[in-house]
Specification:
The protein has 3 domains: about 5-135 and about 300-325, Rossmann fold; about 135-295, 2-Layer Sandwich (Dihydrodipicolinate Reductase, domain 2); about 345-430, Alpha-Beta Plaits (2-Layer Sandwich). Helix content is about 35%, strand content about 25%. It has helices at about 15-25, 25-35, 60-65, 80-95, 105-120, 135-145, 160-170, 175-185, 190-195, 200-210, 230-240, 300-315, 360-370, 405-415; strands spanning about 5-10, 35-45, 60, 75, 95-100, 125, 150-155, 220-225, 240-255, 255-265, 280-285, 290-295, 345-355, 375-385, 390-400, 400, 420-430. Helix 1 (about 15-25) crosses helix 12, helix 5 (about 105-120) packs across helix 10 (about 200-210) and helix 7 (about 160-170) crosses helix 8. Bound molecules: NADPH dihydro-nicotinamide-adenine-dinucleotide phosphate and L-homoserine. Its EC number is 1.1.1.3.
């Protein structure tokens, strides 16, 4: 059979890994596919010492690749929005299939890109964009396609998980660990995407569409990062039997779906609690199968290349029958009516940390406010005065309540004369049900 000819645009962390793995596993891949995968052209502004492109057709203009009639599949690995979108749409207009690792592009412009691809009868695949090397999209839209997905929760940003793990285990300062993640090639070009939860929200948006059959709603996802997390809260959470994780959670509710990314306390005994470093994991609950868990490296050169190349092989298998491909977001009919719930409509348990004056009756006043708002306390801990300011920390875990009710209670608590500064609120999820 004729080889499948790919054009790779971008020769950074993922691009170089893709070239390396395609070259290294060339024979194994050909045996799986029944035809070989050839790198027809590479579009890169400069060489990358991490991969050897000697003898390969390298152009400095990525649009040469999108316009090259000998390229069957364009692999977009440049990242970003505008140029990447233009590149992908040009390739589609030229009848090429597209494989991308760019979750930002898919989450924010996917509806338009998939419409263009449908028009041209080509495939756009993006497995590498979600949870790095883990075949999470494949599991969700193929392996679990018999199920009504109830919810999913994932550690879906390797950089963020790496930072939280290093802070907890080594007490390393946030900025130092972030720099390390950048040097290891885990972080986005703009690392605020990682630490402020934007990258995780991109991935969650894509997962939710594949789980519930809804359009991509990145603009409605609630996003909260990890930059305000302190070692003190990580320590208190540990003492209470929890681990701090940065989770993306998508949950089906009677009146819509929750779509939220935020720091979350999970029970220390839960499997997700032991997902450390750059590793990612996605837990999915389907009505037929129950819970399934997918674990693996969430970022990195070869690990991400693994998912990019799996997509190339999937596309290659469908070259003669692209309409047989799974719908781009897993459902042929997308439900436009299911709303994404605003954050004050979610239901959750909470960790609250209050810095209070060490006076008789404070605890009573605090618990009275929770009680008259109908908030049930699950655990309560008072820590000794630390700063010599005559104050103590009170840490409270609550049972599940509506976020809007918790908002009201926090406002009332912050108005107490005993409470100093803002109350720290971290959502808690037991990941059961
Ligand atoms: P890098 O910054 O390492 O690589 C991007 C490459 O694209 C660079 O070589 C850059 O060239 C090149 N590039 C950017 N714009 C252009 C352009 N206009 N013309 C030619 N070349 C261009 O990024 P990554 O490899 O880390 O990420 C690539 C994509 O994969 C992103 O969408 C990212 O979100 C995604 N991703 C990354 C993962 C990871 O672990 N790193 C994991 C999963 C997904 P130059 O060096 O000259 O700027
Ligand atoms: N910056 C991303 C992360 C890369 O750290 O998870 C993988 O998508």
């Amino acid at each position: 059979m004729k080889p499948v000819r790919v054009g790779i645009c971008g020769l950074g962390t993922v691009g170089s890994g893709t070239v390396n793995v395609l070259v290294r596993n060339r024979e194994e891949i050909a045996r799986r596919l029944g035809r070989s995968v050839e790198i027809e052209q590479i579009g890169a502004r400069r060489d990358n010492p991490a991969c050897d492109t000697t003898g390969m057709n390298v152009t400095r203009d990525i649009f040469d690749v999108a316009n090259n009639p000998d390229v069957d599949v364009l692999v977009e690995l440049i990242g970003g929005y505008d140029t990447a979108k233009q590149l992908v749409l040009t390739a589609i207009a030229n009848g090429k299939h597209v494989v991308t690792a760019n979750k930002a592009l898919i989450a924010e412009h996917g509806n338009e890109i998939f419409a263009a691809a449908r028009e041209q009868g080509v495939i756009v695949a993006y497995e590498a964009g979600v949870a790095g090397g883990i075949p999470a999209i494949k599991a969700l839209r193929e392996g679990l396609s018999a199920n009504k997905i109830q919810w999913l929760a994932g550690i879906i940003n390797g950089t963020g998980n790496f930072i939280l793990t290093e802070m907890r285990d080594k007490g390393s300062p946030f900025a130092d660990v972030l720099k390390q993640a950048q040097e290891l090639g885990y972080a986005e070009a703009d690392p605020t995407f990682d630490v402020e939860g934007i990258d995780a929200a991109h991935k969650l948006t894509i997962l939710a569409s594949n789980a519930f059959g809804i359009p991509l709603h990145f603009d409605k996802a609630y996003t909260e990062g990890i930059s305000a997390i302190t070692p003190r809260d990580i320590q208190y959470a540990t003492e209470l039997g929890y681990r701090m994780k940065h989770l993306g959670i998508a949950r089906r509710r009677g009146d819509g779906v929750e779509l939220r990314v935020h720091p979350t306390l999970v029970p220390a005994k839960h499997l997700l609690a032991s997902v450390d470093g750059v590793m990612n994991a996605v837990l999915m609950e389907g009505d037929a199968v129950g819970q399934t868990l997918y674990y693996g490296p969430g970022a990195g050169s070869d690990a991400t290349a693994s998912a990019v190349i799996a997509d190339i092989l999937d596309v290659a298998r469908l070259l003669d029958a692209p309409t047989a491909a799974v719908a781009p977001l897993g459902f042929v009919e997308s439900d436009q009516q299911i709303p994404v719930l605003p954050i004050d409509k979610i239901h959750c348990s909470y960790y609250l940390r209050l810095h209070v004056s060490d006076q008789p009756g404070v605890l009573t006043r605090v618990t009275e406010i929770l009680s008259h708002n109908g908030i049930n306390i699950d655990a309560l801990m008072q820590k000794e005065v630390r700063e010599g300011d005559g104050c103590a920390d009170i840490v409270i875990l609550t049972h599940e309540t509506l976020e809007a009710i918790m908002d009201t209670a926090i406002i009332e608590l912050e108005q107490l004369a005993d409470v100093t500064g803002s109350i720290i609120r971290i959502r808690v999820d037991h990941l059961e049900m």
